[in-house]
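Hi C.,

You asked whether I'd gotten around to modeling the 100-residue construct. I have! Everything is below, sequence then structure, no commentary in between.
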Amino acid sequence: MAKIPAAAVAAGGLVGGYAVARWTKKRPLGGVALAAAGSVAAYEWNRRAGARAATGLTVAYVAAFAGSHPLAKKIGAWPAVFAVAGGVAAASWAVTRRGA
């Protein structure tokens, strides 16, 4: 089975969570997608870089989700989601690349 990098899972969780919430008009369903991807990413971050890195990246993931809301008021919803997803992916890659 192909291995999907945690950076892609985290970014996909942010984008996918928003997409699910928007298109189903059920915000809690989007939250489930966001949390599921975040859990998978956190597990992989812990496995590859340790508990401290996983905690930091998980905090960044949640902060990106929260930060996308005020950012969306300035640049629009989709650009905000893509911006924070890119930031989390870059942080994830930077922290976990040593273990590759």
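If it helps when you're writing up: The chain has a mean pLDDT of 94.

Thanks,
B.
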